[in-house]
Design a protein that fits this description.
The structure holds two protein chains of two kinds.
Chain A: H1 2-10, E1 19-28, E2 31-41, E3 46-50, H2 57-65, E4 72-77, E5 80-81, H3 87-92, E6 95-97, H4 110-115, H5 125-131, H6 133-153, H7 169-183, E7 187-191, H8 199-214, E8 218-222, H9 226-232, E9 235-240, E10 243-248, H10 250-255, H11 257-264
Parallel strand pairs in A: 3-8, 3-9, 6-7, 7-8
Antiparallel strand pairs in A: 1-2, 1-4, 4-5, 9-10
Helix pairs in contact in A: 1-6
Chain B: H1 2-28, H2 36-52, H3 75-96, H4 101-121, H5 123-126, H6 138-143, H7 147-174, H8 176-186, H9 188-193, H10 198-224, H11 235-247, H12 252-268, H13 281-300, H14 316-332
Helix pairs in contact in B: 1-7, 1-10, 1-11, 1-12, 2-3, 2-10, 3-10, 7-8, 11-12, 11-13
The chains are: A alpha/beta, B mainly alpha.
Amino acid sequence: MASNANSDVRTPRYEPAALVAEDVVVTYGGVRAVDGVSLRADPGMVTGLIGPNGAGKSSLIGVFAGAQKSTHGLICLGDQDITSLSPHRRSDMGLARTFQTARVFGRLSVLENVMAGEKHAKPGGLTSAILERRSWRAREDATTDRAFAYLTEFGMADKAETRCGELSGGQRRIIEYLRVLMARPRAILLDEPTVGMAPWLLARLKEDLRRLCSEGVSILLVGHEMSFIREVCDLVVVMANGKIIARGEFDEIAKDETVQQAYLGRRVVGAR
Amino acid sequence: MSFYIATVAVYFVVYALGALGLNLQFGLGGIVNFGFIVFEAAGAYTAALTSVGSSSVGAAQSETYFWGTSLPFPIPLILSAVVGGLLALVIGPATMRKMRRDYQAAAMLSFALIANQVVGNTAGFLNGGNGIANVPAPLRSLGGFSLSSYHWVYVGWAFLLGIVVFVICRWISYSPFGRTIRMLRDDEEAASSLGVNAWTVRMRLFVVGGVIAGLTGGLLVEFIGAWSPGAWSYQETFVLLQAVILGGVGSEFGAVFGALVVGVILFQLPSFLPAIGYPGLIDSLQWIVIGFVYLLVLWFAPQGTFRERATLKLGSRSRRLGLNTAARVSGVGPSTAPVGASDTHEEA
């Protein structure tokens, strides 16, 4: 059973596809939180999105995920326009995400939370629950195996039956991340994935992101921890006041005067 | 005495079924359906109308209702479940599509109040406030039972139905679909980001709850033989809701236990007590006691008697999986190196 599950999961389920935003605008009342942003996260790359607080990064992630409506602009996954699609449809197309504050299903066990990421765990519905018990049980076994293997790898096997609501913030972050891995997505939105994670897990996360990239997954990563961004991201995009003010490799960005001004809190000029 | 015990037993099943249906909607799915009793009433009226015959003939001559026929057992009961589900199919989109959960609750309560008033004050529709009486006992004519033995046959039938519904609710709860509805309850946005279509899952759940409610109404009316707006005031939903909360939100055993304590011991048994004090005193005391029990539960045991458990137990599986993990993660996980540091759970 385990070997079947393995052969299934080693191959990405989706064709690689870039995650693209074109001229996206998000307004809250009269405030333009995202102001005409165009951004592309290509397959096989980790694209970092950084910027001071209030820059519009999480709003942009929300627009990519479909949780936040944009006032204007286009969101594409590969060559498909997904602007008007709901979050669950985007998920079905291979987009996975984490949240700025880790969100878990508090009354479900840790194991169930991780299993929730598995696409085929999407139940087939009510009739399947009652009439096709043998069929879903076989799938459940495979999903349980995968989820438990991940938990073991991340040192959380002993928590498998604990309610997720009882976990610490860092542990919830891990669970949320494992859900993403379970989904075998083609594009991933990671919103501050390193917050609350133990140092040895950060090393592990870097290793994972590299592996996912090699499998052709597109990754857009929002972060504040610059050493992590520097080590992981192939391309870094900087936002401030809802606009992109710089993009390039980390070392170039770090020397950029506009970026330094934005982080030091001075007025941003020359936004690009 | 025999009839008394049989009646209490049937009421127990009726409350247990109602609590199971509401537990499915509220306990697992987080749908606050303050109008649950309306779906039960729809089932009861359906079973009554399809059993009692036309209002112009027989014992029903003194009653006026818009339509009636006499169908053989168990068709009226099946129809009661179907109508409960159909009503949910109609009401669900109106209340659940766009509304936030707290507004849903208010909308469902309003629906319950309006439905009760409309039915109670429309004489020619379902015989107004007097309701429909003389609903024939379905199994009695089939088996030629005496009155005393018939009651126990019906108790057996009710328990059989109750067990079937209980098992189906458990199957739903312990299936991947059950996990999906719990996910929605705990965090809709996170569930949607994992591919769950919140709207369709909630509607399915709402309809299943409606089917169970309708069946419950049909089961009750075929036993007591009458149904009127007084039997389905909005408070009845709160009795069921309290049964779910006392038993343990999300637990099927809890729903049955809550139905026994709240529905039978607190709500039904006092109505068989000899009268004390002025008329209506027992009824008033009953609500006071129910209110106190509710507060005690919320204060001392907010999780209820039977706490919702993880539906997936690893048992010996964890040992087997643990032993095999190193071999399996090479294909499954992000790396081949198993990590066993116990300090993983510390906040960084």
